[in-house]
Amino acid sequence: MKLFDVYPLFDIVPASAINCYITDYNGVEYLDLYGGHAVISVGHSHPDYVKKITEQLNRIGFYSNSVQNPMQEELAFKLGELSGYQDYALFLCNSGAEANENALKLASFHTGKARIIYFEKSFHGRTSAAVAVTDNPKIISPLNDTVRRTLLPLNDVSALESALQIGDVAAVIVEGIQGIGGCRVPEPAFLKAAEQLCEKYEAVLILDEIQSGYGRSGKFFAHQYADIRPDIISVAKGMGNGFPIGGILINPKFKPWFGMLGTTFGGNYLACAAGIAVLDIMKTEKLVDNALAVGNYLLSKVAGIPQIKEIRGKGLMIGLEFDFPIATIRKQLLYDEKIFTGVTGTNTIRILPPLTLTKPQVDHFVEALVRVLNKS
Ligand SMILES: Cc1ncc(COP(=O)(O)O)c(C=O)c1O
Question: Per DSSP, what are the bridge partners of residue 32?
């Protein structure tokens, strides 16, 4: 059997990884400024993380959500504590798309309504409702196309109010910082207005923090820069440092009933072990603060590079937009300088490293970038 060919691949086979570095089968070491697509939070193969999952696997790897699982409660407690959402409830699932799918479903159950408002350049995943509210018609199948939805420009308060006034909106979904949209930060005033308008028109505000959450922005959640408290927050990616886990943080006004949401694998022991290890490491190593400090350092270092047209983002979620396509630069960074970076669109490099990144590693990247730019 062959693989279903949906991914364009770099010609690199990672063999091992430690903290911010990946080593391939030829023994070549790469600096990882891509974090496996914003997934690696506490660094590759962190010893506490490896120990926690290994020990758990030696005890029990899986049962089901029909028995008590104190690890889920420990995870919820620690997440509440670190994020400042102690009063919210946690529902666990396995991926980002699934987190958003459940968030949208919960909003629809709660309001009895079905329309979703979403924004230009958004990405929310590839399951049915999540992909329907993603601004990329190419990945929306006719089946997904049946979801009732309204696409609006980001940061346009009056367009949002006009759409909400109609009265059929279950939820407004917005990323804390747009990822695939190119590290675009919603204006704090817009998020504040969205919070107030959702309350006024009885719609649910969903903050997709799948990419921008878990410390990546330099706060636990990017929306905390806008000082809002959304009704539902979706998380995944950094939550498990590579172990598949996702979840939604749910305001106490939502009342659950048995069977309302559910999943076979969500919240399994191994995922909880990964999730707890991540939170413990983030706390002891102060990784949210590190993301802010090293991110700000990176922003200051790239500010003087003349070829960069626009710099966007916060913490260690940074978009560098150029006037020209960057495919060649990205390849040169990878193959000549041995540095992994992300991309968005044709002209923007995305920096999404582990939150353990250091200032000397930033210096190394900036020197390499300048070298590559001077070649082209
Ligand atoms: C903002 C955002 N939402 C949702 C998703 C979907 O997550 P997953 O690929 O885990 O389903 C992603 C993935 O890139 C994302 O960046």
Answer: 340
